[in-house]
Amino acid sequence: MRKPQSVNSLEKLGRVRLSKSFFMRDMLYSEISNFYGVPNIPDNPDLAIKAATRLCEELLEPLQERFGRISIRSAYRSPEVNKFGNDNKLGCAKNEANYARHIFDRLDANGKMGATATIVVNSFVDYYEQTGDWQAMAWWIHDNLPPTDLDFYPKLAAFNISWHEKPGREVYSQTKPKGILTKPGMDNFEGRHESAYEKFLATL
Question: Which of 33, 116, 136, 142 is 20 to 30 A from 152 (CA-CA)?
Fold first, then answer.
């Protein structure tokens, strides 16, 4: 598929079904794009679709099946949107750091494919706002989903979740307690962590 050059071709891209619940259009919304008028359109739609499909099928669908509706806050960013966001301090890393992450129509420096979405698990929001316990979701994902990097934020317990050809397994938080929760080599990395999320599961 060529890069869309018309509304009709962009609509066609948006109608591509990535998984049971998600379409490519779900990946394309961007406040930066909408507010500043910077197009958020993949240069390589086929690669973007391929990476987004793996993200949806392997990570987002299992999450939604277990916990109910997921809201996508941010997913695909064109290099132009991401660079604008970085240049203007709007919460975007440099393009090179986001290749095969939010810019998922580009391979990373090692030639690997990947895709990242910032999501909210709607059923988790009330529990998080009452307890501040973002770790419950982090440990459930760590224990139950394929390897992925996670990065949690303060508002709505939103977090980045990444599919990658060579996945990491680091859990990081930008809300309290800040820093790395776990990664390979840490004492808490191996084994199961049911006690960390059993209270949340009991609320469902």
Answer: 33
With 0-12 / 13-18 / 19 or more C-beta atoms within 10 angstroms meaning exposed / middle / buried, residue 83 is middle
Number of H helices, E strands in the chain: 10, 6
| Partners of residue 119 on adjacent β-strands | 72, 159
Please give the share of the chain, as a percent, with pLDDT higher than 90.
99
Can you read off the two tokens belonging to residue 180? 């790395």
Q: Where are the domains of the chain?
A: 7-202
| 32 Cβ neighbours under 8 A, 6+ residues apart | 38, 40, 77, 81, 84, 85, 90, 92
Beta-carbon count within 10 A of 203 CB:
12
